[in-house]
Design a protein that fits this description.
The protein has seven helices and four strands. A four-stranded mixed sheet has the order 1-3-4-2. It is 45% helix and 13% strand. It is globular. The protein is an alpha+beta fold. It has a domain at 46-166: Pathogenesis-related Protein p14a (3-Layer(aba) Sandwich), CATH 3.40.33.10. Bound molecules: 2-acetamido-2-deoxy-beta-D-glucopyranose (NAG) (5 copies). One 2-acetamido-2-deoxy-beta-D-glucopyranose binds at residues 69-70, 73, 75.
Length: 194
Amino acid sequence: MPSSQLYLLLPLLLLSLLLINHPVQCDDEEDSLLKGINDYRATLNLTALVKNENAECFAEEMADQFNDQQCTNTTGANTVPGTEPTFNNYPKLLAKCHLNISNTREGMIMPACVPNLVASQLLSNFTESQYSEYLNDTKYTGIGIGTEDNWMVVVLTTSTPGGSFATYNAASLVSKTSLIYYLLFLLISFFFFL
Ligand SMILES: *[C@@H]1O[C@H](CO)[C@@H](O)[C@H](O)[C@H]1NC(C)=O
Ligand SMILES: *[C@@H]1O[C@H](CO)[C@@H](O)[C@H](O)[C@H]1NC(C)=O
Ligand SMILES: *[C@@H]1O[C@H](CO)[C@@H](O)[C@H](O)[C@H]1NC(C)=O
Ligand SMILES: *[C@@H]1O[C@H](CO)[C@@H](O)[C@H](O)[C@H]1NC(C)=O
Ligand SMILES: CC(=O)N[C@H]1CO[C@H](CO)[C@@H](O)[C@@H]1O
């Protein structure tokens, strides 16, 4: 194999390692919140919420908007159902996740801020606040969770088209997972032909 091809593949190796490592950071908090929410729903005899990747994408984008914002500053954390949060770049955030407002309108977006994301406080932020009304609701079937600093954004989805969080052009959306497989495939081919 000519060495020029080797130079092409090395950055891909580094990139795939980065992609594999990056999302792991906040998964513990997100998984423990998801478990807490589903345990809470179990006590109410409600079905467990299923992870929805598109809602998770949107939750991450929403959480990014809060980045360094203090917990006391709730700018953008307006979540009256059926209304759009007060970020003026909301349509842009939807577009980033290939989502159309007509498939997200019936979903629920719930931001919460807890210094250092202390797990027990975070759970009660959702189960013992006005948010419990939505967690108590049988109409929600899916969930996506995003984290940034002290902010956690929970997005609930429905099984109706209006809250499905279905992407409008699923074929063009290369998920992180498939990208990783693609890069691994490249790597394996590389070593195979070496
Ligand atoms: C949940 O279901 C169990 C068994 O059917 C029942 O005993 C319990 O009262 C139910 N709890 C609620 C909150 O509905
Ligand atoms: C609150 O956050 C918004 C958005 O990040 C920012 O524009 C605003 O200046 C902040 N307000 C305070 C009081 O920190
Ligand atoms: C969103 O859905 C509406 C109604 O189905 C459609 O008119 C609009 O073009 C869609 N927007 C995008 C970006 O796909
Ligand atoms: C949700 O259900 C719990 C347990 O039954 C109850 O304590 C809480 O008040 C309910 N929340 C709302 C907003 O009705
Ligand atoms: C949305 C919400 O309930 N936020 C609360 C989360 O918990 C912190 C600390 O316990 C409160 O300060 C927030 O108001």
